[in-house]
Specification:
Largest interface: A-B, 34 and 35 residues
Distance between the termini of chain B: 33 Å
Radius of gyration of chain A: 17 Å
CATH topology of the largest domain in chain A: Cytochrome Bc1 Complex, Chain D, domain 2
Oligomer: heterodimer
CATH superfamily of the largest domain in chain A: Cytochrome c-like domain
Shape of chain A: globular
Number of helices of chain B: 11
Number of domains of chain A: 2
Strand content of chain A: under 5%
CATH class of the largest domain in chain A: Mainly Alpha
CATH class of the largest domain in chain B: Mainly Alpha
Largest sheet of chain B: 3 strands, mixed
CATH topology of the largest domain in chain B: Cytochrome Bc1 Complex, Chain D, domain 2
Number of helices of chain A: 7
CATH superfamily of the largest domain in chain B: Cytochrome c-like domain
Shape of chain B: globular
Strand order of the largest sheet of chain B: 6-5-7
Helix content of chain B: 25-40%
């Protein structure tokens, strides 16, 4: 399944967009400018099959930083839903597959797409889109205009998950 | 893919909502059932339940003369044990003054303004929580019974839509946790079905009594979604839908939660 997501409609995501458009041309221009600015922050990527083969940053991520992101409940949030090979982490989720062996099951490109936007593969998924900003509704002010993880952080997580080869 | 997923996809284009599979009536469980033995015992024993301190305060406020009218709640309603029995089990209820459903706290404030000619009590204030806990206590054990009539229906529907709408940076809906994944663990916490049966309730994490709206704000915060202002119609609509979803389940006020 490739590129089947509808094109972004960010400015109307909160349901007020239509009103803004109706009110004034200036508002339209402003909201487009806004869109351009937000989109700029996300690096472009190409989906091939069920993967994003190229690194988002052009560089390889750092395995150790990746592990720290995955276990951090304020940053990666992964262990809210997933469990994994983290014996020191007491509270792990049961909402999602165990992360052990993910590096054996998936290529780096496949892992990258699953973290960037798992909804491309399963539109009903509860796994949050970590590198998408369009199509979201009512985002809290502190998190507006930014993805859950940066491109660098995603690459770190991908590099780490790729090392999880034992079932 | 769960059957609900297809619906989510079909409506995602409109940024709209999906109706997730509702929990069959017979499978519903209060958050009480997921608690450890000690926390349950704390809720069950009035002498150990910290929420009872607020109930006692509420009883004193019930009998205190207030406002320019110098009337107490008891002056109009008499003994709450009789007059308030079953009331909390049918709130939020339609208010003709407001033209929409109001929750119990708002109803108390309408009485304060109009009958006692006094100022409204702030949401989450000790006094409002105490009065709501005292009134709620009179319905303990009684089944929730929300009017499902023509006036209420649009608000119930609005509440259901809020419940199934994905929101926040994490793009989650209430239903994805509370209809689709209850019983699973979110990190250390068991996800309950999200029934409003015990509010206001004493939460060990808060070390205090808190309202249902406070609980909903916590969930919205976790979803990284904008929270609504206290008393916002959205909260009341959600509350109405949650009560309807819990219809027939017994009121536990003041409950205890971890």
């Amino acid at each position: 399944m490739t590129g089947s997501r509808p094109s972004p409609t960010k400015s109307s995501a909160d349901g007020c967009g239509a009103l803004v458009y109706a009110v004034a041309l200036a508002a339209v221009i402003a909201s487009f400018a806004d869109d351009a600015r937000t989109q700029e922050q996300l690096r472009p990527y190409t989906v091939v099959g069920d993967a994003i083969p190229q690194s988002l940053t052009g560089a390889k991520g750092d395995v150790e930083r990746g592990r720290n992101i995955v276990v951090n409940r304020q940053v990666g949030l992964c262990l809210l839903c997933h469990s994994g090979p983290f014996p020191e982490e007491k509270f792990q989720g049961t909402l999602a597959p165990d992360l052990k062996g993910t590096g054996a099951r998936w290529s780096e490109g496949q892992l990258r797409l699953r973290i960037v936007d798992a909804s491309r593969l399963n539109p009903g998924t509860i796994m949050p889109p970590y590198y998408r900003m369009d199509g979201l509704t009512r985002v809290a002010p502190a998190f507006q205009g930014k993805p859950v993880l940066t491109a660098e952080q995603i690459e770190d997580v991908v590099a780490y998950l790729a090392t999880l080869r034992n079932e | 893919m769960k059957p609900a997923a297809a619906v989510v996809f079909a409506t995602a284009v409109l940024g709209a909502t999906a109706i997730a599979a509702e929990i069959p009536l017979a499978d519903r469980k209060s958050g009480y059932e997921y608690m450890g033995r000690e926390t349950r015992a704390m809720q069950d024993d009035d002498t150990a339940n910290p929420g009872m301190l607020w109930v006692l305060d509420g009883e004193a406020l019930w009998n205190r003369k207030e406002g320019a009218a110098a009337k107490s709640c008891a002056d109009c309603h008499g003994d709450a044990r009789a007059s308030m029995k079953g009331v909390a089990a049918r709130y939020p209820a339609f208010s003709t003054e407001r033209g929409r459903p109001v929750n119990l706290e708002q109803r108390i404030n309408i009485c304060r303004a109009e009958q006692q000619q006094s100022t409204p009590l702030p949401f989450e204030s000790k006094e409002l929580l105490a009065l709501a806990a005292y009134v709620g206590r009179q319905s303990r054990g009684m089944p929730i019974e929300i009017a499902d009539d023509e006036r209420t229906k649009p608000f119930l529907q609005a509440g259901r839509e809020l419940f199934t709408q994905r929101q926040g940076q994490l793009n989650l809906s209430c239903a994805q946790c509370h209809d689709d994944n209850w019983g699973q663990k979110l990190a250390g916490a068991v996800i309950p079905q999200g029934h409003p049966t015990g509010y206001p309730l004493y939460r060990l994490e808060w070390q205090a009594l808190g309202s249902l709206q406070r609980r909903l704000r916590n969930c919205l915060f976790g979803m990284r979604a904008v929270s609504y202002p206290s008393g916002a119609p959205e909260y009341v609509d959600l509350e109405l839908y949650l009560m309807w979803r819990a219809r027939g389940m017994p009121i536990e006020t003041p409950a205890v939660r971890p």
